[in-house]
Amino acid sequence: MRSKARIGGIVVLVLVAAAVLGAVVMVLWNAVLPALFTNVRPLDYPHALGLLILCRILFGGLRGHHGWHGHRNWRKWHAMTPEEREQFLRNGPWGRGPQAAERID
Length: 105
Known about the structure:
Strand content: under 5%
Number of helices: 5
Radius of gyration: 23 Å
Order of helices and strands: HHHHH
Helix content: over 70%
Number of domains: 2
Largest sheet: none
């Protein structure tokens, strides 16, 4: 029973967050874009939600926050020996040392 209440609470939280974000998108669109461009019409609430979902699909994907890559990197880190971890932290993720980063700046 407790897990059903927790899942119900999460569902309600997601729906409320989507409703608030849709309203924020609508307000920002209507405040900024019609003032900048003459041919842009104001956005109503259902279209704001659709735009929010479209942006999530196009730019955020349908995966979680880190996608499929987060666990792979964690497994790589745990597979390293302490010496490899030290070398990685010293040289950075691209194999350059701290001297190379100083020369670029």
